[in-house]
C-alpha cells in the first residue's frame, strides 16, 4: 500500500522504528558506559576475569571501553554519525557475545560486567549467560537496522546533511 507521496508502508515505518532503535541502543550504551566510568577499577576487573587478554591490555580495555560506550551512546542518541556509531556498536556487541559465550563454554562463573560491577560470582550465584547473549543479540538486531537505514527522525544527521 502506497501513500499519496508514493512511499510504501515500509518506507514510512522504518525511520520511526530506527528512531526507537537509536534511542534504545544509545541509551543502553550511555548507561552501561556511565556506570563503568564511575568505577574504573571494577571495569578493569570485569575485563580481566574473562581471561582472554593479557593483564596490561585488559587494563587498557577496562579504562577505554566505558569512554567508547558513552561516546557511542551520545552519538546514537543525538543521531550524529549514526551509521559509523552503529557499525562500532555492532562490532562491540559481537565481541561481547563472543566473550560471554567463551566464558560460558569454559565454565567461568563470572558477572558479565555489562552494566558495571563484574568479577567472580559469589557463592550460590549463577551466571546469566543465556539472558546476556539474547539481550546482546536483540541490541545487535536494532544496531543492524541503524547500519542499514541510519537516517531517522529528530537526528543531527538529518539536520546537517539536509536529508528527509
Structural account:
- By secondary structure, the protein is mostly helical.
- It has one domain (9-152).
- It is 68% helix and 2% strand.
- It contains six helices and two strands.
- It has helices at 9-37, 40-48, 55-78, 82-105, 129-148, 156-161, and strands at residues 110-111, 119-120.
- It has a two-stranded antiparallel ribbon with strand order 1-2.
- Strand 1 and strand 2 form a beta hairpin.
Order of helices and strands: HHHHEEHH
As residue ranges, the low-confidence spans are none
Mean of the pLDDT scores? 94
Share of residues in helices:
55-70%
Strand content: under 5%
Q: Gap between N and C termini, in Å?
A: 20 Å
**Broad shape:** elongated
What class would the helix/strand composition place it in? Answer: mainly alpha
Number of helices: 6
Trace the largest sheet across and list its strands.
Answer: 1-2
Total domains: 1
Protein name: Methylamine utilization protein MauE
Main location: membrane
Keywords: Membrane, Transmembrane, Transmembrane helix
Transmembrane segments: 16-35, 56-80, 86-105
